[in-house]
Design goal:
Oligomer: single chain
Distance between the termini: 98 Å
Structural class: mainly alpha
Strand content: under 5%
Radius of gyration: 30 Å
Number of helices: 2
Order of helices and strands: HH
Number of domains: 2
Length: 70
């Protein structure tokens, strides 16, 4: 292998490595369908918990006010 072929091989390998690393990064960032469904389910559960929490707080506030008034 002459020096020119060696340089070309190094350039090709570094270019191939760059392409492979970009592919793996993009593949890793793309969420799959199961994780998206799980995220949606968790968001719905948090919304329900927020609704319950805020409703009960207001209800307790009303009860405390009623007790204060007597």
């Amino acid at each position: 292998m002459n020096p020119f072929e060696f340089v070309i091989a190094i350039i090709a390998l570094s270019f191939g490595y760059g392409l492979l690393s970009q592919y793996l990064k993009r593949r890793q960032k793309a969420p799959d369908k199961a994780s998206l469904e799980r995220l949606d389910m968790l968001e719905q559960r948090v919304e329900v918990l927020e609704r319950i929490l805020t409703d009960r707080r207001h209800e307790l506030d009303r009860e405390f006010d009623a007790l204060r008034r007597g």
